[in-house]
Amino acid sequence: MDKEHRRLKSQRAVYKGSLSRMQTFVSNYSEYQNSCKLKSRLGEVPTLWERFEEVQLILELDDDDTDHSEHRAEFETMFHRVKAHYLHLPAVNLPTFTGDFTTWVQFRDTFKGLIVDNKPLPDVQKLHYLISSLKYEAHELLHNLPISNDNFAEAWHFLNTRYNNTELIAAKYVTELLVPP
Question: At what angle do helices 149-163 and 123-133 cross, to 10 degrees?
């Protein structure tokens, strides 16, 4: 076996090991753990698949004397187990925002993590989710805005400009502290 084949087999072992560790992590995941870790790890799955496939294909084409199908089958089984866990994550309800400055930061961070930073989601859907997550005063600000790809960035910027005002947020908290229950 030449040096290149040893290197490729070593790479394949690294990818299989990574996926195996990911499978263990996902299998032991509980709702109390940090969901960001899970999202990050699951985001690596397609890349691991592509890298493994590239190395495996070269080994299969260049090494006629060895049966590599067992490695492929083992990796595919692990891959689909991890993918199945990803598909069975519990649904997360979108937050709602009424226009209350004291709840803005929580809404903003949650909505940003679930929708705004979701790259595959088109802006037209992001805007639809945004408008459907707004109630009362906040909804009134955007309810006449046509739902289109072009309007999401403008709507999100508008809400951030209006509600991400630290002075007003602080004043609202102080007022709530001074008013007796």
Answer: 40
